[in-house]
Structures are given as structure tokens and as C-alpha cells.
Design goal:
By secondary structure, this protein is of the alpha/beta class. The protein is built from 8 helices and 10 strands. A 7-stranded parallel β-sheet has the order 1-10-9-6-2-3-5. Strands 4-8-7 form a 3-stranded antiparallel β-sheet. The mean pLDDT is 96.
Amino acid sequence: MEIIIQPDSQHASQIAARIVARLVREKPHAVLGLATGNTPLQLYRNLVLMHRESGLDFGGVTSFNLDEYVGIPPTHPSSFHSYMWAHLFSHIDMTKDRINIPDGLAADIPAYCRFYEQAIRSAGGIDVQVLGIGTNGHIGFNEPSSSLSSRTRIKTLTDESRLDTAAGFGGHEGVPTHVITMGLGTIMDSKICLLLAFGKKKAKAIAKAVEGPVTAMVPASILQMHPRAVIILDKDAASELKMADYYTWVYEHKPDWQKH
């Protein structure tokens, strides 16, 4: 794992945007795995700015989103479809037929999940997968106890995850109970895993994921096994890491060719 600690989320998101932008410039037909939530918002704003001001071209890029709620239409204001169009897709030049977001209204969910997995393989696999982390250590919506080799499937949300998103559904009772999510095995197939985490409330989950044992009870800990996992944190999210000073020293002393 490469651990990058920055003073705040703005600086952290700029580094993440440079990583994604470099990939897109070097590989115009790159495949991006995308996440939702508050954490990647600044990353997406930076990518939109790069598109507008420096011509970062997304015309050949394909994307696959991590997850979507089951049982709500794409037009629902709290759907991940709505989120992605509001914060990224409406502002860049991606081709609509290259955008893939799980279908929460699929009539046959197991068959749809197999289709989604095949679509990722047919696209050549995900080059960089953007990730956030839940306070319980989930990535995607792979809740604690998820199989570390799981593939895209339906998952039941924990009460903690539902409470975290309650505001968008008018309260806890309105939050869907199920999602379609890429599995941990699917995420681990990505060539680069790029996880962002900001704020004190993520500090415990980050400490367990980065420095604790690899365990299904902290799904993000599987990233310790990934050959190229990049974890970008603000100081608050890094505050419970025992080796934070070492990670900072390593990043500051990288050779120029390794810097982001």
C-alpha cells in the first residue's frame, strides 16, 4: 500500500485527480471504476476543471460505478445515477454508451450481476478504481462479513450504512435495504485501487484497514493484498495510524519519477 497523507481534503483530492488524469492522458480508452458519496466530490470537481481548462479528454473513456440502490429508479434524486450525472457526467465529454451504473430495477438481479461482471471483463478490466470507505470499513457496499473474493451481487445494508444515507431519503425508514455492489474480488481485479478518506470519523476504519489484520470484518483491509493500492488521506483520517510519520517521510522522499 502507498499511504499519502495531506493537510486537508483539497490537497488530497488534487493528488487523486492527477493520478486519474495521468491515466486518461496516457491511455485515452481507459476504464474507470467510480464511487459516490461525499468523499470523491472534490476529485470529480477537479476532473471537470481539468476538462474545461486543459482539455482533458474523456471521449474514449469507459466507466463502471461500484453500486446502486435496489428498487429506486435512476431518476430518484438520491440514486447513484443522479449523483454521477450531477457531479461528473453532465460536465465532461464521456459518451453515454460508455457509462455503466448498476441497474437497481433489474428484474433478474443475479443474471444482471453476471452481466455486469462480463461487461467489465469485455471492456478490458478496470484501470483505476476510485473508492471511499465506510465508518464500518466497507468499500463499495461490501459490508462487514463480506467474502473477500466476492463478485458483483445484491447486498443487505447494515443499519449503520442506512443511517449514514438517511438524509437523502427523508429519514432512516426511507432508505432502501438492498444494493447491487461490485464485490471485493471484483474491486481487487482493478489495476489500481485509489481509496480516499477524510475526517476524524474515518480514522478508526482507516487504521484497521491499513494496519490491522486482513479480515472480512473490515472489508477494506483486503486492499493490503493489492499490488497497487493508493490510500490518500487528510490528517484527520490518518490520525490513528501508528506509522503516519513514516508514511509521510516516504512520500516526501520519493524519487521524482514516482511522484504523483
